[in-house]
Amino acid sequence: MKADETGHKGGVNVPNTNKLSIRRMLSNTLRGVFTPNSEKASALLWLALQADLKKALKNKQLSLNYQPIMDVQTDKIYGMEALLRWHHPDFGVIPPIDLFSAAEATGLALSIGEWVLQEACSQAVKWHELNSHIKIFINLSIAQLREANFLETLYRVLNDTKIDPKLLILELPQTASLGKEDVLILDAISKSGVGLSIDDFGTASSTWHSLKSFGIIKIDNAMIQMINHYQDDSTKIVSAIFAMAKHLGIKTLAEGVETEAQHQFLKDKKCDLMQGFYFNKPLSVDEFTQLLMSSHK
């Protein structure tokens, strides 16, 4: 379909402006930041984005990238994290925080979450033919966990895709406050054989009482980025987290590893797993397939 004069392909008209201004308005809109001069334009853009996201899900325009997770001891690929991407025809790649804000506002968060689970597990099964031990990490929101039929959905995906439950790990954000019902659901997930990881560990809102429900803690990349040299106070905090995890028998996964200094520090602290640009960027399906194939030569 030919783009109209506003630059938007159908749907709600967006005022004509350059891409930088559009993306700035988009960012401001999704965060609820309005100015008198841009409020009308931002509202129109917001409506257009809602309509576009519904079309994207219906027309299978969303995609997943996969970032390798490395086993520190073996230097081999332990698994991969599925990362949702939306390549908007007008705005380019929509940042994840904006994508999920739009999904929640349009009521599509649960549908998109279910699609990610189905798509990632289906792809992982294909890769298991190349490496039967590689694990797939999938982000799980607290809203998904509390959905009335979540366990039913999970069991259906496991059955439909034929994935080995032991090769699936669901990541729940540390910022989520878990109640008794949540812990019961996590227990049911564990009994199915699916693994659990706690994401963004080390944030200000972190709590400790629910750690026993998880087999892996993923240390927030903001903490990893603070590692500059061994005398930093931040390294003492990270070291304490590793000591605590080892005492509890929980694996540690450091995300956002970018430098040799960070890699060496984490290795010295006996970090179990790492991911980040130091090893590889998020990859497309074809790129990740090539990586797996080359790792077996």
Task: Walk me through what this model shows.
The protein has 297 residues and is of the alpha/beta class. It folds into 2 domains: 1-59, no CATH class; 62-295, EAL domain (TIM Barrel, Alpha-Beta Barrel). Helices cover 44% and strands 18% of the residues. It is built from 11 helices and 9 strands. Helix 1 packs across helix 2 and helix 4 runs parallel beside helix 6 (150-161).
Can you lay out the helices and strands and say which pair or pack?
Blueprint: H1 19-30, H2 39-58, E1 62-71, E2 76-88, E3 92-93, H3 96-106, H4 109-127, E4 135-139, H5 142-145, H6 150-161, E5 168-173, H7 180-191, E6 195-201, E7 216-219, H8 221-225, H9 233-248, E8 251-254, H10 260-268, E9 273-274, H11 285-295
Parallel strand pairs: 2-4, 4-5, 5-6, 6-7, 7-8, 8-9
Antiparallel strand pairs: 1-2, 1-9, 2-3
Helix pairs in contact: 1-2, 2-3, 4-6
Strand order of the largest sheet: 1-2-4-5-6-7-8-9
General form: globular
Distance between the termini: 45 Å
Can you identify the CATH superfamily of the largest domain?
Answer: EAL domain
Key phrases:
alpha/beta, 297 residues, eight-stranded mixed barrel, TIM Barrel, disordered N terminus
Can you summarize this structure?
With 297 residues, this protein is α/β, with parallel strands linked by helices.
